[in-house]
Amino acid sequence: MTARPLLLVTAALALVAPGFATPGDETAAGHDAGNAAEHSEPELPPHSRAPHQVDVTVHDDAWLLVNDYDTFGELAEADPERFEFVEGLLEPKDESGEVIDTYDGYRDKTGRVELRYDPEAEDVAYFERVSAERLTRGHENYIQYCASCHGLEGDGYGRSAQHLRPPPRDFRVGKFKFTKVGVENLPSDQALVDLVKKGLDGTPMYPWALTEGQLLDVIQYIKSLSPPESGWRDVYAVVKGPVDIGEDPWTNDVQGAVARGEIVYHNVGCFNCHPGYVTPARIDEIVTGEGGIAKGSYREDLTLPKIVPNTMYQVQGYKTSILPPDFTWHSIRAGRDRQGNLSALEIARTVGSGIAGSGMPQWKGSMPDKDIWAIGYYVRHLIETYHGKPQARAALMSELRGGN
Ligand code: HEC
Ligand code: HEC
């Protein structure tokens, strides 16, 4: 365990240093032979600190949230070999030793998962003990593959991150955009594995061909970056898989789905941020048809995406606005399935779950699943028909813009 980190760090340095060194980076990149007596470490901005200064060994185990009290039962019951239900499993005491509450719960026979009481929050949740060895493995891989963008401390401000738009995620915030688990929830390990394996199209977040084991280790490490009482250390947080939007109700009627999707898209006002893809007169017709009241006039630049002030994402307190995509023009990030095909299900899941930090709300619960599916089909149709097809797109735009 002692020799290996050194090797990895050298490799990581070789990956990061060439091409990125600027005169000011000399010391950070380790080129400064310097006189030992004169040498003192200058205060460097986070992005110019080179990995050779990092100790990859994690010394402490971490207790990380597996699931909240209410939803853990289902998981535990599915695995009776491992979990048994115990009445009065946990009886937290106050300072004088008096029992203040009694919680029934599941005991993990392997001893890794535990129902834990947080005296500050006066609440319980299930936490898993992740060993320091495993976190060290995760950290090694993290430094090697992820830190150049996501930062040595996971703050989203790595050496290569400075000019990336969208910016890489700050892992201490515990907020994710494309894991499709709902804007309020934390993603399950599997949701994160899927995302990292697929990458995010149109961004420098590539699909990573690490093994499942490596990925799971890196993910434990990323989760362990949560500050005390937040993210995966927060008893109130909820860990979820992708939103459940049920079985595809449109398998035998794709055209019907696209037609319904167009109606729902323009009825609920996706065009307040994304472009509208029908004329204002048609929007009025749609809204009236759905029992609403037609507005009669819409924003003048309806065929362009619009940044709204709350579409802000922060990295180190710096706010970056992300343009909502025009589906006929921009690529979308997370629209493909595991086979790489553009997928109505994946798009519908994004719409159902919302995009945390982008202003795009969660639609699951505020419209029927069938309509969420229809939108998935409609957006896929827009991409397939117009994206990368300049002539078809120009014809649509000229129709919508009245020849302009
Ligand atoms: C070359 C730069 C780069 C590297 C290297 C990189 N990422 Fe990213 N990553 C990004 C960017 C940029 C984003 C944000 C993309 C966006 O918001 O559209 C991102 C986003 C993410 C997200 C958040 C997705 C979400 O739902 O918000 C996760 C998780 C992630 N990266 C994990 C990793 C892991 C794990 C590694 C190493 C195996 C890694 N990244 C390596 C650039 C990088
Ligand atoms: C308040 C503004 C807002 C509204 C309303 C909104 N979106 Fe978005 N949407 C965004 C932003 C911003 C992004 C880009 C997020 C990013 O890439 O970081 C986005 C991204 C998306 C994406 C791309 C996801 C990906 O994989 O890259 C889809 C699909 C989408 N929106 C569909 C919809 C649909 C359908 C509706 C209406 C039901 C809707 N949006 C309403 C702001 C909005």
List the helices and strands and how they pair.
Layout: H1 3-16, E1 62-68, H2 69-77, E2 83-90, E3 103-108, E4 113-118, E5 123-130, H3 132-150, E6 186-187, H4 189-198, H5 212-223, E7 239-240, H6 254-268, H7 280-289, E8 312-315, E9 318-321, H8 344-353, H9 369-386, H10 390-400
Parallel strand pairs: 6-7
Antiparallel strand pairs: 1-5, 2-3, 4-5, 8-9
Helix pairs in contact: 1-3, 3-5, 4-5, 6-9, 8-9
Brief description of this entry?
This protein has 404 residues and is α+β, with helices and mostly antiparallel strands. It contains ten helices and nine strands. It has three domains: 165 residues, Orthogonal Bundle (Cytochrome Bc1 Complex, Chain D, domain 2); 68 residues, no CATH class; 147 residues, no CATH class.
Description:
This protein is an alpha+beta fold. It has 3 domains: about 5-60 and about 130-240, Cytochrome Bc1 Complex, Chain D, domain 2, CATH 1.10.760; about 65-130, no CATH class; about 255-400, no CATH class. It contains 10 helices and 9 strands. The strands form 4 sheets. Strands 1-5-4 form a 3-stranded antiparallel sheet. A two-stranded antiparallel sheet has the order 2-3. A hairpin with a 2-residue loop joins strand 8 and strand 9 (about 320). Helix 3 crosses helix 5 (about 210-225) and helix 6 crosses helix 9 (about 370-385). The longest helix has 19 residues, at about 130-150. Residues about 1-35 have low confidence and may be disordered. The site of one heme C has 28 residues, from helix 6, helix 8 and helix 9.
